[in-house]
Automatic annotation (TrEMBL):
Swiss-Prot/TrEMBL GO biological process terms: phosphorelay signal transduction system
Name this protein carries in UniProt: SpoIIE family protein phosphatase
CDD domains to which the protein is assigned, alphabetical: HATPase_RsbW-like
InterPro entries: Bact_Sigma-Reg, GAF, GAF-like_dom_sf, HATPase_C_sf, HATPase_dom, PAS-like_dom_sf, PPM-type-like_dom_sf, PPM-type_phosphatase-like_dom
Ranges of residues in domain PPM-type phosphatase: 530-748
PANTHER family for this protein: STAGE II SPORULATION PROTEIN E, STAGE II SPORULATION PROTEIN E-RELATED
Source organism of the structure: Streptomyces argyrophylli
Main location: membrane
Gene3D superfamilies: 3.30.450.40, Histidine kinase-like ATPase, C-terminal domain, PAS domain, PPM-type phosphatase domain
Topology of the protein relative to the lipid bilayer: Multi-pass membrane protein
Cell compartment(s), UniProt: Cell membrane
A matching Pfam family: GAF_2
Recorded GO CC terms: plasma membrane
């Protein structure tokens, strides 16, 4: 409180500061006046004493004679010093009329000129003045010394410093200051007591704050929608706000009158006069039920009396009921915003609308949609609807069951809503002939069941009408009204947007699924190098860009490819199809993995440039990865290269698991960097595991953790088949992963020496016959005598061309696999071309003959040359 007072911002603080300043000014004025008075008295006393001493010495006998003597100083100096000491003055100076000193307390100054005014004294007058002499501030008097004839023969000056005269006054000054301090302390203490009392009364508020508080309190008091009465201890009404005047119908001059004189009923007047505590007591005042609260005002030292508040509970209950209804409707709309459309499923969205409406809004709710909407297509007006969702307070109802196809008659409320696009409310179904004409038998059962009111709202999404939502009331006796119709329309409008979004998603998802299924391999091609199993899991959000393929190559080799296009939807699926087609085309050239990825990288770069003209840029290929591996069952070598793809895993026959160290190239489309290959020799019955990143990486774990989990899963499958391996690996994934997953497990087979035959052919045309003989004998050993003739023809042509156009060494190899494969190799890189020979040409018909006899034929290049191969189906 003292701190508040000292700040000076409150009324008490301002009063305290003003009182202290006044007392301080009075004390200072008194001290200053006393000091000035003491100084004035000291100056007067000094002047009088100096005048008396100077006149006495000037008129002393012998002074004038001494001034005429030859040596006045010798006569007058002793006298002057004796007189000075006897009178207590500070100096007595005798001088001639020119002001030359004959005497002085300090003998060194004798003979010097006197400091002061002497002209009036030379003229015969006395001079009194205040000067700052050599011994300090002093009062000095100069009187003339006259001879017997009245002529001025010299001057006498006497003086005394004010310090010597005011000694008594200085001794009184401390006492005076102490008295002033005591007076100031007493005055301050008294002022503080007064200010403290004032501070307690004003609560530390300043004048502006008190004025503003009064204005605000007065405004609140008269604006509040609650009656306020203040009654004094004597029962007189001291204050009543406007609401109290209205509720109690008080007269305009009610203030200062006793509460029993205000025309109130005895019970209410007695309560106000008693001042007792009351909490929510209900009193009937005329036609109003008032809730009365009353508290005394003297509980904490306040004035006697009581404060009473009044509330009109009649209006409050009506307002509370309306507020509760509004709150419930707002709550329903909020729950509709967060609870309808939680999934992109048309049926589930319709069910969410029906479940939200029952039982808070309707006793039964049904949703009928066109069949085309359920399939993701735009609705076709005039067709039948299907009951998609149904909810109610009871399970068994005579309404159309779930899944029923319904065709509404034109007079029914539902048909009118579908035709006009406007909602229809039927307060009393019994009086609605158009509704009863829909199905007289069923509508009769509905009425007998107790359903009596209906709201039908069309599900509109823009210009499309997707169906109708029906709200039925049976248990609640009151029919639907206009306010409830507005709520139903708002609920259905929100649901319609979600249903249309789900419909569009269903259409796009169906298109994407169809496209993806058409682009992914439906069955794996026949080949004998690998025992294969695969899995493809689409992401939870829909189809994506993960893909895989198995491509048989020449020489019984097989290519495995796994790729990933980042993203989901139609674009990802379409891009995946383009890349898969490109890999098919490039693999037909029998290219090494690194060269194939380089061509694929260049293709993706061109796709980016072509699609970069899109306004939105959504079709640009970004984040495409690929792993390409070629396995040769003869040499058991697997050659691999990857472009930003996770490394493959290898499960050896003893169960050991390792991730192959394949150089990681950049993702497809970046360009500028070459790809590197890795060559690994795989034991027979090894399992090669190729996968996409959705298997080992998601939002909850990084790829290192995913690779560790994959290793653990593969370690638990020693000796398992590829199918069992796929099943074990995928069991640890959720049913709907966050990203697509493509997985291939390939168990290696080996083409043994008993199924492979090879010869080295000299670069001599005569060696062709020897090769034919060796081949015929080997075919006989294999039981393939039926193919001997065609094989001889094919080898003769291929070997002859190699000898004629190629470079040594020349090799021949036969492979007995699903087909009989004949291969002729040499060191040249020239490629033979199939053409039609003219009738006059002597050659050019050999390759044509090979193409006719072989099922397939072609050329592949090796680091040391080329291989021309031809396949024949086994008999």
């Amino acid at each position: 409180m003292l701190r508040a007072a000292l700040t000076g911002r409150s009324v008490a603080g301002q009063v305290f500061a003003l009182q202290v300043v006044i007392v301080l000014l009075l004390v200072v004025s008194a001290v200053v006046a006393q000091v000035l008075q003491v100084r004035h008295d000291s100056d007067t006393e000094a002047s009088n004493r100096s005048l008396a001493v100077a006149q006495s010495f000037a008129n002393a006998p012998g002074t004038a004679a001494a001034l005429r003597s030859p040596d006045p100083t010798a006569v007058l100096q002793p006298r002057a010093e004796a007189a000075r000491k006897a009178t207590g003055v500070d100096f007595i100076v005798v001088m001639n009329t020119d002001g030359i000193r004959y005497t002085h307390p300090q003998t060194g100054r004798i003979g010097e000129k006197f400091v002061g005014t002497i002209a009036p004294a030379v003229a015969g007058r006395t001079v009194t003045e205040h000067v700052n002499g050599t011994i300090g501030p002093l009062e000095q008097v100069v009187v003339p010394v006259k001879d017997s004839g009245g002529q001025v023969v010299g001057l006498v000056a006497a003086g005394i410093t004010t310090a010597h005269v005011g000694g008594a006054a200085d001794q009184q000054l401390p006492l005076l200051l102490a008295a002033a301090a005591a007076a100031l302390a007493l005055a301050t203490a008294g002022t503080a007591l007064v200010s403290r009392r004032l501070l307690r009364q004003t609560h530390g508020l300043g004048p502006y704050e008190m004025t503003r508080m009064y204005e605000h309190h007065d405004a609140v008091l008269h604006a509040v929608r609650e009656g306020v009465l203040i009654v004094g201890g004597d029962g007189r009404l001291l204050l009543a706000n406007d609401e109290a005047h209205r509720l109690l119908d008080l007269p305009s001059d009610a203030e200062r009158r006793h509460v029993r004189e205000l025309g109130l009923d005895d019970e209410t007047a007695g309560l106000l006069a008693s001042g007792r505590v009351a909490t929510d007591e209900v009193h009937l005042v005329k036609d109003r039920l008032l809730a009365v609260n009353q508290r005394p005002t003297d509980l904490r030292g306040g004035p006697p009396g009581s404060v009473t508040t009044l509330r009109d509970s009649t209006e409050l209950r009506a307002l509370s009921g309306r507020a509760e209804v509004a709150r419930e409707r707002l709550n329903m709309l909020y729950e509709a915003g967060v609870g309808i459309g939680t999934s992109l499923d048309v049926t589930r969205t319709a069910e969410e609308l029906a479940e939200l409406a029952v039982p808070r809004f309707a006793d039964f709710a049904t949703v009928d949609l066109f069949d085309a909407v359920l399939d993701g297509e735009e609705p076709r007006p005039g067709t039948a609807l299907r009951r998609t969702a149904c909810a109610g307070i009871r399970k068994e109802t005579p309404l159309y069951p779930l899944g029923e196809r319904i065709r509404f008659v034109t007079t029914s409320p539902q048909a009118r809503a579908l035709t006009t696009g406007q909602s229809v409310v039927v307060p009393r179904l019994r009086e609605e002939p158009g509704w009863r004409a829909q199905d007289p038998e069923r509508t009769g059962q509905v009425l007998a069941f107790g359903i009596h009111s209906l709201i039908t709202v069309p599900l509109r999404a823009g210009s499309l009408v997707l169906g109708v939502a029906n709200f039925w009331r049976g248990e609640k006796p009151q029919p639907f009204d206009a306010d409830e119709l507005a709520l139903a329309e708002e609920l259905v409008a929100r649901a319609a947007v979600s249903i249309d979004n789900a419909r569009r998603y269903t259409r796009e998802h169906s298109m994407a699924v169809t496209l993806q299924r058409s682009l992914l391999p439906r069955t794996l091609p026949e080949q004998g190098a690998l025992d294969l199993a695969y899995r493809y899991l689409p992401a939870q959000s829909g189809v994506g860009g993960d893909w895989f393929d198995v491509l048989p190559l020449s020489g019984a080799r097989v290519a495995l490819v796994v790729g990933d296009v980042v993203g989901h939807g139609l674009h990802a699926a379409a891009t995946m199809g383009r890349l898969r087609t490109a890999v098919h085309n490039f693999s037909s050239l029998d290219l090494p993995p690194d060269e194939l990825l380089s061509l694929l990288d260049e293709l993706v770069g061109r796709l980016d440039q072509d699609d970069g003209t899109s306004v939105t840029g959504a079709s640009v290929v970004t984040g495409a990865t690929c792993l390409y591996a070629i396995y040769d069952p003869v040499s058991r070598l697997c050659t691999m290269a990857r472009a930003g793809h996770p490394p493959p895993a290898l499960v050896r026959p003893d169960g050991d698991v390792e991730f192959l160290d394949v150089p990681a190239g950049p993702p497809l489309g970046l360009g500028g960097l070459p790809f590197e290959t890795a060559e690994v020799e795989l034991p027979e019955d090894s399992r090669l595991v190729l996968y996409t990143d959705g298997l080992v990486e998601d939002r909850e774990r990084d790829i290192d953790e995913g690779l560790g989990l994959l290793r653990d899963a593969l370690l638990r499958t020693p000796g398992a088949s590829p199918e069992d391996t796929c099943r074990t690996v995928l069991d640890r994934l959720p049913a709907q992963p966050s990203d697509d997953v493509a997985l291939i497990v390939a168990r290696t087979r080996v083409l043994g020496d008993d199924r492979v035959a090879q010869w080295e052919v000299p670069s001599d045309p005569a060696a062709v016959s020897e090769v034919r003989g060796s081949v015929t004998r080997r075919l006989a050993d294999w039981g393939l005598d039926e193919l001997a003739f065609t094989t001889e023809l094919i080898l003769s042509e291929l070997v002859t061309n190699a000898i004629r156009y190629g470079r040594a060494p020349i090799g021949v190899r036969l492979l007995r696999e699903r087909t009989l494969i004949c291969e002729v190799s040499d060191r040249s890189t020239t490629s033979p071309h199939l053409r039609y020979a003219a009738s006059t040409d002597e050659g050019g018909r050999g390759l044509f003959l090979v193409a006719q006899l072989a099922g397939r034929w072609g050329t592949r290049y090796t680091p040391n040359g080329k291989v021309i191969w031809a396949e024949q189906p086994l008999p």
